[in-house]
Design goal:
Elements lengths: L3 E3 L5 H4 L2 E3 L14 E3 L24 E3 L12 E7 L8 E6 L4 E5 L9 E2 L12 E3 L8 E3 L1 E2 L6 E3 L7 E7 L2 E5 L5 E5 L3 E4 L15 H6 L54 E3 L5
Antiparallel strand pairs: 1-2, 3-4, 5-6, 5-8, 6-7, 9-16, 10-13, 10-16, 11-12, 13-14, 14-15, 15-17
C-alpha cells in the first residue's frame, strides 16, 4: 500500500518536500509499442502565440496510449504490471489479453499484477471490469465514464476520484460526479468499476520551486506587479490591489464570470455542483 514519503529537513526545500511512495508500482520499463513522443508546446498554439501562460521547459516525456474505449468485449486480460505515467496523476495497468494484445488502462484502486479483468455486460462487479451502465447495480462506485456511446471514457479519470451510480430512469442513468454534480448518462455508455488509483496524490507537497519547473511550469507573474502596458491591473504608485475587478491581460474576468457556454448539454445536468 503506497504512503506519503517525507524527507529529513536537510534544506529549506526538503522540509516540506513530500512524494507518494512507489510501493504499488511494478519495476518494469514501459511498453515501447504503446509509447509515442510528446512535443513540448511551451503554451503556444499552431501560430506560435502564447495561449496558455507560464508554461515551458520541464522534463522530457513520452505519452502512453491508454485504452479508454475498453472495446475488447468478452476477452479476458491479465494485469501484467502497475506503472507510473508522467502525463497523469493516476497509475496505469498493463493488460495482457488472451489473444496476445497488450493495452494500458487506468488502474483502479486495489488492482494488482496477476489479477484478471474483462470488459463485458456479464462481468462481475469488481475493480477493473468494464460494463455498460445498465448492467451495473445502483450505488456502485465507478470511474472512466463515457459521455457518448463508444467514444471512450471522458469523465472521472484523475487520481483518487470516483462517481456513484444513483438511479436508472428510462434510457438514462443518474450519476453523481466527484464535484457533486448529478448528470444523466446513457445506459449503454461504458464505465469501469472502482475508484481511480493513487488516492494520496493530493497529499504530495511540491516542496520547492525547482520541482514545479520539472513539471513544465514557469513562474507565475501577478498582474498588479506589471506595467499598465502589459496588464489592465498594472501600474499605480506603490502597492495596489488592482483598482478594478481581477481579470486576465485581455480583460477576461477571473471571478464570478460564468464560463459555461454549451447550452445544448444543460438538459443532462440534474443537479449542479455546489447546490444543496
Amino acid at each position: 500500500m503506497p504512503s506519503v514519503k517525507r524527507y529529513k529537513p536537510t534544506s529549506p526545500a526538503r522540509r516540506t518536500y513530500e512524494i507518494v511512495s512507489k510501493e504499488d508500482l511494478t519495476d518494469v520499463a514501459p511498453q515501447k509499442r504503446l509509447l509515442y513522443g510528446k512535443r513540448s508546446s511551451g503554451g503556444r498554439n499552431n501560430s506560435g502565440r502564447i495561449t496558455s501562460r507560464f508554461r515551458g521547459g520541464g522534463h522530457k516525456r513520452r505519452l502512453r496510449t491508454v485504452d479508454y474505449r475498453r472495446d475488447k468485449i468478452g476477452v479476458p486480460a491479465t494485469v501484467a504490471s502497475i506503472e507510473y505515467d508522467p502525463n497523469r496523476s493516476a497509475r496505469l495497468a498493463l493488460l495482457n489479453y488472451a489473444d496476445g494484445e497488450k493495452r494500458y488502462i487506468l488502474a483502479p484502486d486495489g488492482l494488482k499484477a496477476g489479477d484478471v479483468v474483462i470488459s463485458s455486460k456479464n462481468a462481475d462487479i469488481k475493480p477493473g471490469n468494464a460494463l455498460p451502465l445498465h448492467a451495473i447495480p445502483t450505488g456502485t462506485m465507478i470511474h472512466a465514464i463515457e459521455m457518448k456511446i463508444g467514444k471512450g471514457a471522458q469523465m472521472v479519470r484523475s487520481a483518487g476520484t470516483a462517481a456513484q451510480l444513483l438511479a436508472k430512469e428510462g434510457e438514462y442513468a443518474h450519476v453523481r460526479l466527484p464535484s457533486g454534480e448529478v448528470r444523466l448518462v446513457h445506459m449503454n455508455c461504458r464505465s469501469t468499476i472502482g475508484q481511480v488509483s493513487n488516492q494520496l496524490h493530493a497529499r504530495a507537497s511540491i516542496g520547492k520551486a525547482g520541482r514545479k519547473r520539472w513539471m513544465g511550469w514557469r513562474p507565475h507573474q501577478r498582474g498588479v506587479s506589471m506595467n499598465p502596458v502589459d496588464h489592465p491591473m498594472g501600474g499605480g504608485e506603490g502597492r495596489t490591489s488592482g483598482g478594478r475587478h481581477p481579470c486576465s491581460p485581455w480583460g477576461q474576468l477571473s471571478k464570478g464570470l460564468k464560463t459555461r457556454t454549451n447550452k445544448r448539454t444543460t438538459k443532462f445536468i440534474v443537479k449542479r455542483r455546489g447546490t444543496k
